[in-house]
Every structure is written in structure tokens, then in C-alpha cells.
Amino acid sequence: MESMFFPFLLIIFASIFQGSFGLGMKYMAPLKWESWWLVHVTIAMIILPMTWAFLVVPDLGTVLHSAFSDASMQNVVFMAMLFGFLWGIGGILFGVSVPYIGLSLTMGIVMGLAGSVGALIPLLQMENATSTPQFPYVISGLAITLIGVAITAKAGIDKDKLTSQASGEKSEIVKGITIAVACGILSALLNVGFVNAAPIATLAKEMGALDRNASLAAWVVVLIGAFIMNAGYAIFLLFKNKSWSNFKVPGSKKAFRWAILASVFWFGALGVYGQGAALIGPIGGVIGWPMLLGLSLIVSNFWAYRAGEWNGAKKPFNLLLVGLAVLIFASIILGYSNSVI
Questions:
Q1: CA-CA distance, 233 to 239, in Å (whole number)?
Q2: Model's pTM, two decimal places?
Q3: Would you list the domain boundaries of the chain?
Q4: Cα gap 154→148, rounded to integer Å
Q5: Closest residue by Cα to residue 216 from 205, 230, 206, 201
């Protein structure tokens, strides 16, 4: 039990980062979305992963060269990058959804679906998964997670109705939720890519990396695919909107600072989660991922509350608290599943 405390502590710590990175998206002005996003993804998906991995993975260059040049590894690399690329589409949809339904509801839907689907696919990929003693606990935890997400979403819908009536504005709740659902399903593929990139982490361990640090080599490859999608779309918009000059717009220092901070939070969450999942063991990517995203909802809603998103919506906010309590209970069950023999 004591040996499991540190890995789960890492995942809790990662959830704080995960629940906080979306704050930066509220402070894009005066930068246009594409300008801010290109800075963010370059730091979060290339600079930080490569730097961290370079510092803790011995001979990182050799590890990556072997992964990309070894014929037996090329399918692993391709699938890892493909899952990262598909997740990148979900990442873009996240940014589109927030203006429609707010940070708290977007996070609730996306994190719940991404956590459940992102754990279920790797679980079913495991050999004899359904016969393991952990299986019923993991499935129960995922089901309870979805219940918690549904309650959270209902609270957001009720809140939106109140605020829309008060302002007289037309609600975009259906459109926003549709985008968030698509985002959640695609976002699950980030963890699928990470789990399927395990052979790259094994290469890193063979080169002398610690178990928990070897996961960073896997993230480097997965996030190359994610960066191609995100940066490509941002550059497309920069050309389409002729907004390259926006990088030099007066008063943009605060926006750049938030882009950097959001990048640190975002990859900090993935890097620390990867370390915790590696220390848990083979099932780490199955139980750690939904715990990470479920607990991050608590953090994101704390920031949403501080930002005033729930002002004048006491009843929906109380329902939100119920949903968050359910998510905490789901995380406890998922955590307990790892101790079942």
C-alpha cells in the first residue's frame, strides 16, 4: 500500500496542473486565437517534452533514432503519432467549445469522456483483460465516472439556462455540448497513444532511464503527431486571416505569459501523470488516466467558481458539487482496483 502512495500522489499533483491549464485560454486578448495557440503548442508539445526528456533520459537521441529507424518499431511510432494527431483535432475543438458553454461544462464533458474512453480502449487491448481481478472494479469506476460527468453536465446546462434568461441572449448550449462530446472522444486517444507507445519507453529504460522517466520518451513521439495537427491548423489560420502581424500587437505581453504558463501546466500534467502511471505498473494507464481527468474537474471548477461562472446559480452549483463528489468516489474505486489481487 505504501509503495502505491507516491504514484497516486503524482497523479493527484498532475490533476492540479491539468485542471489549471485552461485558465490561459481566458487571457488570449489582444492576440488572435491562432497566434496564441501556435505559441502554446510549440512550447507545450515540442520544447517542454524534448527538454524534460533530454534532461532525464540518457541518450535520448539514440532512443528516438532507434524508434524511428528500426523496422520493428515503425508501426509503434506511426500509431503513436497518429493517435496524437487525432487527439490534436480534439484539442482544437476544446478551444472552440469553451466560448459556447464555459470552461467548467467543457471540462466536465471532455474530461469525463476522455477519461472513460481513454481507459477502456487500453484495458480491452490487454491480454485476458476481462478475466483479471481488477476488471470489475475498473469497469465500475468508469461507469461511476460517467455518472459524475452526466451530473456535472446537467449542472452546467441548468446554469446556462439561468444566465441566458437573465441576459436575454440566445443559448448555444446544444452546439457547445456537441462540440465538447466530439472533443472528449478524440481526446481519449492521447492516452491510447501513450499506452501503445510503451515499447519506446522500454527502449529508454534499456538505455538506462528510470522507469518513471522513460515515459517521457513515449510522450515525445506521441506529441509530435499532436503538434503537427495543432500547429498546422494554427498556421493555416494565420495565412487565411493574414494575422501574422498579430504577434507584435501592442499589449500582448500578458497573453504571451499566459500562453507559456498554460504550456507548463499542460505538459506538466502529462509528464507527471506518465511518471505515476509507470510506477503503478502495466495497468497504470488504465486506472491513472480517468483518475487524472476526473480529479482535474475539481480543480477546473474551482477556477471557474473564482472567475464567477457560477454566480447567481446556487442550485446548479449545488448539483455540480454532487457530481464532483461522485467523481471523487469513482477515483477512489479506480485507485483501490490496483490493490486487488
A1: 10
A2: 0.83
A3: 2-337
A4: 10
A5: 201
